[in-house]
Design brief:
Shape: elongated
Distance between the termini: 88 Å
Structural class: mainly beta
Radius of gyration: 40 Å
Number of helices: 3
Strand content: over 45%
């Protein structure tokens, strides 16, 4: 199913309905609002398909075929049964008490899908019935200071248009009234049995609310408004719990230059205390955002800031409730660094670097004063696999690579390789090696193993002194 926030409304022009219904086919004006789940309304030309079905989940009894409609700030309009579409018979509504409108939408990205739920026709049966009810009365010629009155077959007043007050009223058994004033923003309503959706249109925008029929509490609301001064478009999406308390709200503003600002807030069960809040601004592919987490008292528990470029985080910081830095992350030119802090001082740092040969990772530990005490590096460095540890305070280190390991402490070192071991103290040392092919071994001592230093070649049967020195 598409990730869409969809709230629909049906608008039937009651005052012109009798004239429309006198013909064989009827035409029904329909207007809708469609937005992405983020609350951002669609704009552009999109393909729709409208079907009238009988009952919940019923088969289509009428289909408009594919229709391309313009959508501006989420709002689109269509006349069902208009020229070019199959004839829409009024008998379809008279003979079937439960008729619904099914809508398919193609956003040109995810393809055509059917939106849910189907929209139930509620005002239409009264208008259609006026064509067939012999006892119905419609006064179409209005004398001065009079009203348009529509009665059902029992003579009960259902609708009244009063030009003196500028109001249109729907009356049910003299107990309930619904009024739309011409001096107020136009309002439409529809009811699917479980919820009532109400849409209000204003000069620079539109708002849609959904109310639970059983509790009378708000469930959801969407509002879109265009600023006539700078041309920016702001959309707002709110969700409520079963008690009508606000759960979350999202606001997005898009400016003509493409700059987008967003704000998301989540609330506790009381609908007032904030649990989480985030604000962001996106411009030229770079998003900068700040966020806060709150405790049950509404006090800031954690906070942070983040910079994202082309979907990848390049910099972030996280703070504790006192505003002390607890974590920092940076990424640039293939190298990323993540540092953890305690009491505002570094305690542990991880560095990763990507090169043509591969990737290496270096971790650094710090003491309570924020001074580095040890490091460890693993991975490919200059084309060779390494595993190196350093004790920075004790001036000790240990490194490993395929076939070789080295231990260092101050000016001493011990290096081990296949068939060979070297021990050095300062500039001097000694070593022992065995040739795996000949079976001969060599013992050296002095500044370095070479023909200028005293050395011994030996086999399993004898020992020979080569290049002897006076101190050999």
């Amino acid at each position: 199913m598409k990730t869409l926030v969809v709230l629909f409304w049906m608008m039937v022009a009651v005052s012109s309905a009798p004239a429309l219904l006198l013909s064989q086919g009827v035409q029904i004006p329909y207007q809708g609002y469609i937005a992405a789940q983020s609350g951002k309304p669609y704009s552009g030309s999109f393909q729709f398909e409208f079907s009238i079905v009988l009952g919940s989940g019923g088969l289509p009894a009428w289909n408009s075929g594919a229709i391309t409609l313009p959508v501006k700030d989420g709002i689109y309009s269509v006349i069902l049964g208009a020229t070019g579409q199959p004839t829409l018979s009024s008998s379809l509504f008279v003979n079937n008490p439960d008729t619904r409108l099914r809508i398919s939408f193609d956003d040109a990205v995810k393809g055509k899908e059917t939106l849910t739920p189907d929209v139930q026709f509620l005002p239409v049966p009264y208008a259609v019935h006026a064509k067939y009810a012999d006892t119905s009365f419609v006064q179409t010629a209005l004398p001065p200071m009079d009203s348009l009155v529509l009665r059902d077959s029992r003579g009960v007043v259902r609708m009244v248009m009063n030009p003196n007050t500028g109001t249109f009223s729907m009356k049910n058994n003299d107990t309930t009234w619904y009024s739309i004033s011409v001096n107020s923003p136009p309002t439409e309503k529809w009811n699917d049995g479980t919820q009532t959706v109400e849409k209000k249109t204003e000069p620079n925008g539109v708002s849609v609310t959904s109310t639970d029929n059983k509790t009378g509490k708000l469930k959801e609301s969407v509002a879109v408004k265009r600023d006539p001064n700078d041309g920016s478009v702001t959309s707002e999406h709110k969700e409520y719990d079963n008690s009508g308390n606000l759960k979350s709200e999202e606001t997005e503003t898009v400016k003509p230059d493409g700059t987008t600002t967003e704000k998301t807030t989540r609330y506790a069960e009381d609908g007032k205390t904030k649990e989480y809040e985030q604000t962001s601004e996106t411009k030229n592919g770079t998003e900068k955002s700040t966020w806060k987490e709150y405790n049950e008292k509404g006090e800031t528990e954690r906070s942070g800031e983040r910079t994202t470029t082309e979907g990848e985080t390049t910099e972030s910081k996280e703070y504790d409730k006192d505003g002390n830095l607890v974590e920092e992350y940076t990424e640039k030119d293939g190298k990323s660094t993540r540092t953890h802090y305690v009491n505002g001082k570094p305690s542990l740092k991880f560095e990763q670097e990507k090169t043509a040969e591969g990737r290496s990772t270096t971790s650094t530990k710090y003491d309570e004063n924020g001074n580095p005490v040890s490091t460890r590096t693993t991975g490919l460095v200059n084309g060779k696999w390494v595993n190196e540890s350093k004790d920075l305070k004790g001036n000790k280190s240990s490194s490993n690579e395929p076939g070789k390991s080295t231990e260092k402490a101050d000016s001493t070192s011990t290096t081990t390789e296949p068939g060979k071991i070297d021990i050095k103290v300062g500039a001097y040392g000694m070593g022992l090696g065995i040739d795996g092919t000949s079976g001969y071994g060599q013992l050296w001592y002095g500044p370095a193993p070479s023909t200028d230093n005293p050395s011994l070649d030996f086999s399993s049967t004898d020992i020979t002194v080569k290049a002897p020195k006076s101190n050999c």
